[in-house]
Write a structure and sequence with these properties.
The protein is of the alpha/beta class. Helices cover 29% and strands 26% of the residues. The protein contains twelve helices and 20 strands.
């Protein structure tokens, strides 16, 4: 049995710091093992494995990819310290990853649910509102406790973003997901898709660039989380430039939301809306960007300690996974300096420990 001694500053919580811990049989203990030899010692600032709460393993910009490519994506996230990925929709069957001790843990949302021609080609089950509930139940059973809807997308006839689903279809589908024990999240760029999703009982909104002042108190009151994916929103200007000639209203809309992105995130944070770090890796963005997204949170005005928590302690709690605790699975990352004051250190892990094994560094 491999025994690791991890010492320095072990960040059990943002304000709960211990001097050392051990890893025995893949699990964390604060009690020094007496009868076993220590195989390796790691030293530094120790965090629970980072969480990328919006990631896609198994797709690229054209749709599903092969297992080798999926593996490369997962390894890139792992080596960046992201050991728990909430997969926000994948067209590939990545269930085999669960059997791989060396790859990050996945919490799947099944496959995206969208309407025909109202999302990126090859990504979603493209269905009509009358079939939404049946597909939500199907994806809830295939996923790991989440279902992913596309809440809005460009409507080429309207020349702007528009909601995909009528309110009654959403109400029935979200209730059905909840009955299956799954939470529901939705891709939303625009403002006008949010009120119906909130009324229908949605649990989380991805991107949330359309979160207006009028809606913020409702999100806060209902505890609806957001995963802004600021590293993705950074590409809105480029999307707008490409769309400009054919869809000028849409382009202007995307630019305005891009301009307001930091103020939107900061206002949500100030109102107490739960916010989590997600990169949207896997579509057009590369994997391994978790540190960049935390840095974007700080740029938006979120205090570094809370930006950090949104990628580890609070994110793990939200997803129902342990952090650093007696008996918890040993998924931790070691850094050379205190990440609570300076989150840029997250880009430079010195060791990554997954299921008790040093897998990088
Ligand atoms: Zn996404």
């Amino acid at each position: 049995m491999t025994v690791l001694h991890v010492k320095g500053r072990v960040l059990v919580g943002p304000d709960d710091v211990r001097d050392e811990m051990w890893v025995v049989g893949g699990r964390i203990t604060f009690e020094r093992p007496t009868s076993l030899a220590v195989d390796a010692t790691l030293e530094g600032w120790v965090l629970p494995g980072l969480v990328d709460a919006h990631c896609h393993v198994g797709i690229d910009e054209h749709g599903a990819v092969d297992a080798q490519t999926s593996e490369r994506q997962a390894v890139t996230d792992r080596d960046a310290g992201a050991l728990l990925l909430r997969d926000a929709g994948s067209a590939a069957d990545t269930r085999w990853i669960d059997g791989r001790e060396d790859l990050p843990r996945l919490i799947r949302a099944g496959r995206h649910l969208a309407r025909p021609k109202r999302y990126i080609r090859n990504y979603a089950h493209e269905i009509e509102p009358g079939d939404l509930t049946a597909y939500v139940v199907q994806e809830a059973r295939r996923g790991d406790g989440w279902v992913k809807l596309v809440g809005d997308w460009i409507d080429r006839d309207q020349g702007d973003l528009a909601p995909l689903w009528p309110l009654d279809a959403l109400k029935e589908a979200i209730a059905a997901a909840h009955a299956e024990g799954a939470r529901v999240t939705a891709h939303c760029f625009a403002e006008n898709s949010l009120p119906d999703l909130i009324e229908a009982g949605i649990d989380c909104i991805e991107h949330a660039t359309g979160l207006t002042e009028a809606l913020i108190p409702t999100f806060a009151e209902k505890g609806v989380a957001i995963v802004p994916t600021l590293v993705n929103i950074a590409t809105f200007d480029g999307i707008a430039a490409q769309a400009e000639a054919k869809f000028p209203v849409y382009a202007a809309h995307m630019r305005a939301m891009h301009t307001d992105r930091y103020a939107t995130v900061r206002a949500a944070y100030d109102a107490g809306i739960p916010i989590y770090v997600g990169t949207d890796a896997g579509g057009s963005l590369p994997h391994g960007l978790v540190a960049d997204e935390v840095a974007e949170f700080v740029k938006a005005g979120i205090p570094p300690r809370d930006a950090l928590s949104a990628a580890c302690w609070s994110a793990r709690k939200w997803l129902g996974r342990e952090a650093i605790a007696e008996g918890a699975p040993a998924d931790v990352v070691v850094y050379p300096a205190d990440p609570r004051g300076d989150v840029t250190i997250l880009a430079h892990p010195t060791a990554v420990v997954l299921r008790g094994r040093v897998v990088a560094g």
